[in-house]
Amino acid sequence: RRGIETRRCLILKTSYTESLDPSGLFFNQKEHRMTFQLPPRKHFVHKAIEPRNLSPKVLAAADARQDDYWEVKYDGCCGMLIKAKGKAYAFSRQGEPVNGALDRQLRAMESLAHDNYVLFVEGWAANLIHSDINGAFRRGYGDDEPRVLESVIWDMVPLDTFMAGKGGLSYSTRSYEVDTVLFALRNFGFGHIFRKAFQAKSKLACESYIDSCREGRGEIFAVDGFMRKASAGVWNAGAGSCGTILKDKELLTVDLKVDGLVEGKGKFVGMLGAFECTYNGKPQLVGGGTLTDKQRLAIWNDKATVDGGIGSIIEVHALGESTNGLLREPRFYCVRYDKTEGE
């Protein structure tokens, strides 16, 4: 066929020929079926960025916008649901195949005529904490386990835009396309496994929505802050520095006593990897955060007397508390020389 190229590929140490077309599909001659090949690039999603990491010029432009959407950031597992020529495929945001966890969603997408698009979703459940969501997303389900994960759609692009890594559709247009696909899914009876990420014109409206779900419905409703999106912003894979999609996360600061030290892994072998602390009466690991390799090595080699060693009080920055009462993504910030007790 015109536009088809043949290449050699090594999968499971077996060499075979595959036919690849620009849509990302190729025919796997070993398994005699069509398979989807992600484009060769580092990032597959449009990355959000925290305002503090923007340049002053980009931050000023973002602050001047008046028509942004605020969106709830669900604390699940980010994935991509791809519909290409009638078949649907699931991947994590790093490009790893998702096996089993979202199969219901894939079959639902295949039942629709709407074709050649990518849904960016969070694998999520209203009554699960993040660790349970993550377990279901990574391992899939056993034969006798209930299918608990739904897909919260937070963006959508045409397949050719995704393959190219950029596109000209504004976020407001893409949001409307999400509504169109959701309407069709609900008409076919699949509304219970999909939902659109809640969005409003203010952060306060998003906070009120979360409170109503937790109080009115008794849901855990695990969230990870909020997103602020430019109405006219276009989609670019990995392009976080443009400032069209911003993270809004509340930073929690606490002072904790170091109870113990954990050796690092990988490049941190032989030096400090994490601090063992106690938070809310529970064991809490705290990452090295701002520590340099030299500081990590010094603490590990002199665990009891060096600043940051056992018995020290350290300031810890985290992204709030998780639903099990522990800190979310806690990281070392500095040693508190002015304190003798933790919180």
Structure explained in plain terms:
The protein is an alpha+beta fold and 343 residues long. The N terminus is likely disordered. The radius of gyration is 23 Å and the shape is globular. The strands form 6 sheets. Strands 7-6-8-9-11 form a 5-stranded mixed β-sheet. Strands 1-2-3-4 form a 4-stranded antiparallel β-sheet, with no helix packed on it.
- Read across the widest sheet, the strand sequence of neighbours is 7-6-8-9-11
Order of helices and strands: EEEEHEEEHEHEHEHEEHEEEEEEEHEE
Mean pLDDT across the residues is: 87
End-to-end Cα distance, whole Å, is: 68 Å
The structure class reads alpha+beta
Gross geometry: globular
The percentage of residues in β strands lies in 25-35%
Q: What is the CA-atom radius of gyration, in angstroms?
A: 23 Å
- Counting DSSP E segments of at least 2 residues, the number of strands comes to 21
Biggest sheet record? 5 strands, mixed
What would a concise description of this structure say?
Helices cover 21% and strands 33% of the residues.
Kindly list the characteristics that best describe this protein:
343 residues; alpha+beta; four-stranded antiparallel β-sheet; disordered N terminus
Secondary structure elements and their pairing?
Blueprint lengths: L4 E7 L2 E7 L4 E4 L4 E4 L19 H9 L4 E6 L2 E8 L2 E6 L10 H8 L6 E8 L5 H10 L10 E9 H6 L1 E2 L3 H17 L6 E3 L2 E2 L2 H14 L6 E7 L5 E2 L8 E4 L3 E6 L2 E4 L8 E8 L2 E6 L5 H9 L11 E6 L12 E5 L8
